[in-house]
Every structure is written in C-alpha cells, then in structure tokens.
Specification:
about 140 residues; alpha/beta; two-stranded antiparallel sheet; about 30% helix; globular; binds iron/sulfur cluster; 2-thiour_desulf
C-alpha cells in the first residue's frame, strides 16, 4: 500500500503530487495499492492544510488530540478518521503487509508530523490505525 501522492497522483492538499522517482523505482515489479485517505474521505483537492493539535495520530484515536485546519481551526478529525478506516479496510481486503507512506502528513506520516505548526516525532492518523492493526508502515524518507 502506497500513498498515492508519491506515485504521482495530484491529491495533496495544495493540488499537487509528491511523485518520487525513488519510490517508483523501489516498487518496480511489486503489487501496489494506492491510497489517499484524505481524498477518500471527501475532503477535496485542493483542501485547507490540516495540523494535528494536542498530540499525534495515536492521541487522536485515544480522544486526546484533533485534526484542525491550519488557518481557521476547523475540526476535521472525523473525516481524517474516516479516511484512515477506508485505508485499513483496503489493507485487510488485499492482505497488505507493508505500507509505504508520505512522511510529515497528518494522515500518512510515520516518524514526524506537524502538531500546531511544529514538526515533532510521531505518526499520522492513518499510520497509527494501520500499526494498531499490526501492519508495518515505513516512510518514503527511509528509501
Ligand atoms: S500524504 Fe497521504 S493523505 Fe496526503 S496527499 Fe499523500 S496520500 Fe493523500
């Protein structure tokens, strides 16, 4: 399972892709399931950027943190959780063992995420859910 933006899909919040030749080369010959949890949740492309607030993805699932739009502080937590659930359903359906996801995203980050504008150690909402289900999540920055 791979973040669709890394494959060249223009699904980022700013309407751009994050196409990575390094990722594409690493995936050659492998079966790939693209996901974009935020687009799947109907948040739109482009969409306002979102930061985590009060903690990271694990804290969101524990009810201690939220996903808020950066400028207007609108709560997008439920939509982000919906996108994560859709990714988990796909992972189970296709028996995904490894997810390669985009670092620093509030959904897909696996090592660092933005919390209230500051980059800090932690994982995004989708990554936290996949890991809680026993799936391995690695960062594009690990390649
Ligand atoms: S990082 Fe994840 S949620 Fe963000 S655009 Fe890429 S696939 Fe979608």
């Amino acid at each position: 399972m791979v973040s669709a933006c890394l494959l060249g899909e223009a699904c980022r919040y700013d309407g751009r892709s994050q196409r990575s030749e390094r990722v594409l080369a690493a995936l050659e010959g492998k079966a790939v399931i693209p996901i974009c949890p935020e687009a799947a949740a109907g948040l739109g492309i482009p969409r306002p950027p979102v930061d985590l607030a009060g903690g990271t993805g694990v804290d969101v699932w524990a009810g201690r943190a939220r996903a808020l739009t950066r400028e207007t502080r609108e709560d997008r937590t439920a939509a982000f959780q919906d996108g994560a659930q859709q990714a988990l359903e796909a992972a189970r359906r296709f028996d995904v063992t490894v997810a390669l996801l985009k670092e620093k995203s509030p959904s897909c980050g696996s090592q660092r995420v933005y919390e209230t504008g500051v980059l800090r150690p932690g994982e995004g909402i989708t990554t936290a859910l996949l890991r809680a289900d026993g799936r391995t999540v690695v960062s594009d920055e690990d390649l």
